Amino acid sequence: MAEPALETSPQDEDVYALNADLVDSVLRAVAEDDRDALLGYLANMHPADVADLLEQIDTSERIALVSMWGSDISSDVLAELEAGARDDVLETLSAEQLGAAVSELDTDDMVYLVEDLDDAQKDELLDQLDDADRVAVEQSLTYPEYSAGRLMQRDMVTAPAHWTVGDVIDFMRASDDLPEQFYDIIIVDPAMRPIGEVRLGKVMAHPRGIRLEHLMEKDLRTIPVDQRQEDVAYAFNQYHMIQAPVVNEDGRLVGIITIDDAMDVLEDEAEEDMRLLAGVGDEEISDSTMEIVKQRFPWLLVNLGTAIAASIVISLFSSTIEAVVALAVLMPIVASMGGNAATQTLTVAVRALATRDLTGSNAMRVVRRELVAGTLNGLAFALIMAIVGYIWFGSVMLGVVLAIAMVGNLAVAGLAGILIPIGLGRAGADPALASGTFVTTVTDVVGFLLFLGLGSALLL
Fold first, then answer.
1. DSSP assignment of 63-118, as one string?
2. ∠ CA(267), CA(153), CA(134), 5° rounding?
3. CA torsion, ordered 137, 143, 147, 151, to nearest 10 deg
4. Which residues contact residue 121 at a Cβ distance below 8 angstroms, ignoring those fewer than 6 apart?
5. Could you tell me if residue 207 is inside a domain?
6. Which of 15, 129, 391, 431 would bridge 134 by S-S if both were Cys, CB 3.0 to 4.6 A apart?
7. The pTM is what?
8. Is there a single domain that holds both residue 249 and residue 295?
9. CA distance 245 to 186
10. Which residues make beta-bridge pairs with 315?
11. Closest CA to 65 of 272, 169, 209, 57
12. What is the domain range of residue 183?
């Protein structure tokens, strides 16, 4: 059987997208119950691409594929799966099949797969692990969710400061349980407290007789085991770390976090902020229709409430709108411009809060900047809309009303876009949470009040 070509043109903008012919071939093999063909296709795919395939196909197709794959399922694919597809896979595999796959993973990936199982499934899976892995996973599960303790892995290389380069090389060569990937050797004192680290490159570049204490970097940044995972990711990104030791409350080494796990968290946090701004929660491409409906409905209900609030404001000026029909025509322009301007500010503000660039020390300066920027944009568009209003409806005063409302609403939009996420952050909520809904409500209500209020005062 000829396999679909995987090559793509470097100029193809979807160069890393899954090959559609390959996906069709995989699904055809599942439909025809051709397990040998299925295993052949999957063997030639990167685990991350297999995970993408499982996330992008229908639930029924996903379950059928995993059932046929069975005991040969790749542990690396399990570690790559997003939560929704992961749950379907875990429910499809037997405890023995899952245990065989999970046993090949690092402890941090084991925890990722086990943590959301119900107690019965969790115990059944843990029983499939060897004693060392089981203890490590159970210990990690005692730490708070989304903390460094859940993110870390237990496999690491440590050495005392008095060892020589030759000692550590001999140790690594003799060991049969080294991590598959590691970057540094962590230097510890007799109490297992990390005191420095030595890059593997330094070990390989120096004579065997050099002691590690002369090679180690003492400026070691450790991660508390209960630190939030988003703070861990920030530290890696801010300080250009490759790996970091994790310590308990006594300062003793309990694990390490590597850059790949930290960057996964950073990506997840960015995606979470984007989803929260859009009001779609934890929605994933692999979710079913009913799951999507349930997640979106509450936010749509909130939006309905805010839309009703804006409509109530409009109803207060119904007589003005009846008398000056042009107000009804131009009213959406004021609200739309304010909403768009506020969204621009909001997006920048939420990202700046996430990266710690917007802090208490510079908040007032940023607020003033956004107020001035909104006002200046308002003035520019006020001139444009004043001209439009006059040309369209032949009324100078209507152009004046439109111009004043535009300036006021864009200034308020700049303030709302920055103050609302700051306020949510100081209240202990995620700055991205419902910020878009609140900001849109403010700009709609203020825009309608300004435009229709001025219209009532100046045009009647």
1. HHHHHHHGGG--HHHHHH--HHHHHHHHHHS-HHHHHHHHTTS-HHHHHHHHTTS-
2. 125
3. -10
4. 90, 95
5. yes
6. 129
7. 0.70
8. no
9. 8
10. none
11. 57
12. 158-259
For residue 5, is it within any domain? no
Q: pLDDT (tens digit, 9 = 90+) per residue, 226-263?
A: 999 999 999 998 899 999 999 999 999 999 999 989 99
146 burial type by CB count under 10 A (0-12 exposed, 13-18 middle, 19+ buried)? middle
- Rounded Cα–Cα distance for residues 302 and 363 (Å): 29
When pLDDT is cut at 50, 70 and 90, the band that residue 6 belongs to is: very low
Distance CA 22, CA 4 (A): 5
Distance, in Å, from the CA atom of 223 to the CA atom of 146, rounded to the nearest integer, reads 14
Residue length, the chain?
A: 460
Strand partners, 217: 197
d(CA 49, CA 77): 8
The span from the CA of 180 to the CA of 163, in Å, is 23
Query: CA-to-CA distance for 203 and 205, rounded, in angstroms?
Result: 6
Six-digit token string for 412: 């308020």
Chain position carrying tokens 């939009």:
413
Domain of 99, CATH number, reads: 1.25.60.10
Instruction: Report how far apart, in Å, the C-alpha atoms of 202 and of each of 172, 208, 406 are.
Output: 15, 11, 63
pLDDT in tens, 379-400: 999 899 888 888 888 888 888 8
Question: Does residue 145 share a domain with residue 163?
Answer: no
Domain contains 11: no
